[in-house]
Write a structure and sequence with these properties.
about 100 residues; alpha+beta
């Protein structure tokens, strides 16, 4: 059995009929559980649509694509340029006020 890493705990995840045993930081376990649910739900949706008509590989690839697109859209929506511009302007205004 794999050695337990300091500060990590063992969890088991079930994805696509596979049991995945991993060690994660305790404060990250919820992320892994949420990811497991997202993968299972997304995969299940495409399995219901395509099972028997398309390969399991196609179903998995389609589910991965959807999850990847969601991730990219979420990353793009967290653009911080507008916040940085506002912060620079406020900093400049404060500097001017202190002179």
């Amino acid at each position: 059995m794999a050695e337990v890493k300091t500060g990590k705990q063992h969890i088991s995840l079930n994805i696509c009929d596979e049991k995945i045993d991993i060690y994660v930081k305790a404060d990250e376990e919820a992320y892994y559980r949420d990811a497991e649910k997202l993968v299972r739900t997304t995969y299940g949706k495409y399995a219901d649509l395509f099972r028997g008509r398309r390969s399991e590989r196609f179903i998995a690839a389609t589910a991965l694509l959807e999850i990847g697109v969601k991730y990219q859209m979420e990353s793009a929506s967290k653009d911080t340029d507008s916040y940085n511009t506002l912060l620079e302007r406020l900093t400049s205004d404060i500097d001017e006020a202190l002179k």
